[in-house]
Amino acid sequence: FSMRQEYLGNCSRLILLFFLLSALSCSTHRPKVMEPGPGIFTSVPDESRARLLERLHLFSEYRHRHLWDKVYDMLDDDYKRSLIETNQMGRDEYIKLGGIYEKHEQFCSFIPGSAEKLDEDTWMIIGCFSFGCVFPAYYAAELTAHLKDGEWYFEDQNRVFLGFDEGLMPCNEKWLQGRQ
Question: How far apart are CA 47 and CA 66, in angstroms?
């Protein structure tokens, strides 16, 4: 009987240790925007590419850290107006609700795959985002970026759904290559 208690005690400690390490990993994990490969941002003006990548890093960092006030400040003004018009979501509501997505999501990284110029100052950045720190899951994403007065502003990431009841589209090389 005591060997069984000792075994259960050891199992309980191991399970607790696993969850503690998982929590620590999530709290200390730095999100990343993986460096785009050569040619991915060729449609973006040369003088603006480095700043776009820097702003993507910041946007990902702020989303990961749930710094919704800073995320909101990086949003495009037209997008902010649309949030108010469609969702009655101004700055305070956006910050309180954790953006348009739920606060419990653990955003970890964004991997750009291509950038498609939509108009004079707007690009669609196609890529993958991951959720979960310990066991990340990668999903297809589209992020609209606007260049205004030399600075980049964004719309929240659009998730790509397979269909009404099918859920999010997994991100893989085929998705990225098919969008270039």
Answer: 30
Those residues whose C-beta lies under 8 Å from the C-beta of residue 90, and which sit 6 or more positions away, are 83, 84
Residue 139 burial (CB count, 10 A)? 19
Contacts by 143-150, CB closer than 8 A, 24 or more apart: 143/56, 143/110, 144/76, 144/79, 144/118, 145/52, 145/55, 145/56, 145/115, 146/76, 146/78, 146/121, 146/122, 147/45, 147/48, 147/52, 147/121, 147/122, 147/123, 148/76, 148/77, 148/121, 150/48, 150/51
Report residue 118 as tokens: 């939509």
Mean pLDDT by 10 residues, the chain (180 residues): 63 52 46 56 90 90 87 93 86 82 63 88 87 75 92 81 62 58
Alpha helices for 29-160 (secondary structure H) = 46-64, 68-73, 77-87, 91-97
Of how many residues is the chain composed? 180
Burial 112-123 (b: 16+ CB within 10 A, else e): bbbbeeeeeebb
Per-residue pLDDT tens digits for 91-124: 998 888 877 655 445 667 777 888 899 999 999 9
